[in-house]
Design brief:
- With 226 residues, this protein is α+β, with helices and mostly antiparallel strands.
- The chain has a domain at 133-207.
- It contains seven helices and five strands; from the N terminus they run αααααββαβββα.
- It has helices spanning 14-50, 61-64, 71-88, 90-103, 107-124, 156-161, 199-207, and strands spanning 133-138, 145-153, 168-174, 182-188, 193-194.
- A five-stranded antiparallel β-sheet has the order 4-3-2-1-5, with helices on one face.
- It is flat.
- 8% of the residues are buried.
C-alpha cells in the first residue's frame, strides 16, 4: 500500500533491461573469449617458430594440405621432453656442464645465460617446497593489514643477526594484481596470523583486489574443500 507522499516506483524501461542484459553477457563471454583467443594466439606463435625447423616430411601439412594449428606445439612438447630425458642421464649432464663451462668464459653471454637460467628455474623447476600457508601481517605499518604467504623459518645469518627474542618467519607479501611480484619480509612468529583459507583462495583475493573472497556466500567462513 502506498501513501500520497511516496513516489511511485517505475519499472525499468526496455533500454535499461537491454543494457543490463548486454553487460551481463559481456561478463559471461569476455573471460571465455579472451582465454580462447590467448590460447589460440600462443599456439600460432609456437607453430610459427617451431614448424620451420621441422623437416617437411614430418609435417602433416605436406600430406593433408591443411595447416593444423597446434602441430608445432606437439613437436615442441615432444622435443622438450626428449631433451629433459637426455639431460637427466650421465651423458646429458656431462654435455650440460661442458656447455656451461664454455658459456662462463663469455662475459656478455654469461650474464644473459645466468639470468635466463635463474628465471626458468624459478618458474618451471619442480620444487618440493612451496608456500606453506596464507597469513595476515601488519604491513607497511601497525594497523594496516596485508595478506602474505608463509615460506619458511628464517635461518642462518638472517636468524642469528636479527634483533628479536623469538623465531623469525619469512613471509612473501604479493602485490596486486600481479602476485608474482612482491616483497620478502621477516616477521616475528607472534606477529604472523595464519589463515584457514588455502593458498589458491588467498591468491584469488590478491589478484581481484579484494573483490573475490573464498566463500562468496559467507566470507566469514573459509571455503569448503571440493
Amino acid at each position: 500500500m502506498t501513501t500520497p507522499f511516496e513516489p511511485e516506483r517505475r519499472r525499468p524501461g526496455l533500454f535499461s533491461r537491454l543494457r543490463a542484459s548486454f553487460l551481463t553477457g559481456i561478463v559471461v563471454i569476455a573471460p571465455v573469449s579472451l582465454t580462447i583467443w590467448l590460447i589460440w594466439s600462443i599456439m600460432g606463435w609456437i607453430d610459427g617458430f617451431v614448424l620451420p625447423l621441422v623437416p617437411s616430411r614430418f609435417n602433416p601439412e605436406q600430406y593433408i594440405g591443411i595447416n593444423l594449428r597446434g602441430i608445432g606445439v606437439i613437436f615442441f612438447l615432444v622435443f622438450t621432453a626428449f631433451v629433459g630425458w637426455v639431460a637427466k642421464g650421465l651423458i646429458g649432464r656431462s654435455l650440460i656442464r661442458f656447455a656451461e663451462s664454455l658459456v662462463e668464459r663469455m662475459p656478455v653471454v654469461r650474464s644473459i645465460y645466468s639470468g635466463v637460467k635463474q628465471i626458468a628455474e624459478t618458474i618451471f623447476a619442480q620444487s618440493e617446497r612451496n608456500f606453506e600457508k596464507a597469513c595476515l601481517i601488519q604491513y607497511p605499518r601497525k594497523g594496516i593489514w596485508a595478506i602474505g604467504f608463509i615460506s619458511t623459518d628464517a635461518r642462518g645469518e638472517v636468524a642469528d643477526r636479527a634483533e628479536t627474542m623469538g623465531k623469525l618467519i619469512s613471509v612473501f607479501v604479493p602485490t596486486t594484481p600481479n602476485p608474482t611480484s612482491g616483497f620478502l619480509l621477516f616477521f616475528p612468529e607472534e606477529d604472523v596470523v595464519e589463515l584457514d583459507m588455502s593458498i589458491e583462495d588467498a591468491a584469488k583475493l590478491v589478484i581481484s583486489a579484494g573483490l573475490v573472497y573464498p566463500n562468496a556466500k559467507d566470507p566469514t567462513q573459509p571455503a569448503k574443500a571440493a
